[in-house]
Amino acid sequence: MHRFIVREGLAAGAQVQLSQEEAAHAFKVLRLRPGEEVELTDGEGRLFGAKLNEVSRELVTAEVLEELDGKEAPVRITLYQGYPKADKLELIVQKLTELGACRIVPVVMERSVAKPDQKDKGKRRERLQRIAQEAAKQCGRGMVPEVEEAIVWKQALKRFSEHELMLMPWEDARDVRLKDVYEKEPAAKDVAFVIGPEGGISEREAEEAREAGALCVTLGPRILRTETAALTSTAVAMTLWGDI
Predict the structure, then answer these.
(1) In the chain, is it the N or the C terminus that has fewer CB atoms within a 10 Å radius of its CB?
(2) Is the pTM of this model over 0.85?
(3) Per-residue pLDDT tens for 16-66?
(4) Taking the chain, what is the end-to-end CA distance rounded to the nearest angstrom?
(5) Which residues pair with 104 in a beta bridge?
(6) How far is CA 159 from CA 55, 212, 214, in A?
(7) What are the C-alpha distances in Å from 111 to residues 34, 39, 77, 172, 203?
(8) Are residues 54 and 109 in the same domain?
């Protein structure tokens, strides 16, 4: 079923209007007609069934019928992603949205080869947020994850203590697996990961992360690419604490 984001006014029985962008997509691309049923989300976790009333090039309105299950996991997952090269961040944002993550924070780290373009950082974030929005609609989520502007390592460290569990998958870790952490903390509802960029997490960063409360874990004996580590960590966490 087709899904659209309506930020305000969603409630059973309400009449709502799609944004100009969403209306154009419904009319020009999807060619929807009055009477067709759709799903509407506020982007913050709530999902509703609705029926289209008026559908034209300029205006699309709908009647909200009922609230649905927003398909959100019982655990909130945040990713502090070492800033990667090229389009890897777009892939990470898209796939983590599908897996159920709630927030993605790009972090410029010691071994980050690529750096965010300060002139275009607003446009870059807007594009990443749009990717998250489209991925959320595609997979039926009621929440659109927040993609933050890139921060530096020292800023990330200050935020680690805010999380119930702060985990650092690292290639030099040996003994502690995510399953081991779950066995000690099965009721955790807020899990965060810090993932190194292509060059990995440096010894200094690893030590600073541990001092800031991060627990070092292993993802197995093979060295994973940064995008693979991000997806693997989220998928395993969703299997253990979430709803996969």
Answers:
(1) N
(2) yes
(3) 999 998 999 899 999 999 999 999 999 888 899 999 999 998 899 999 999
(4) 22
(5) 79, 147
(6) 45, 9, 11
(7) 54, 43, 24, 16, 11
(8) no
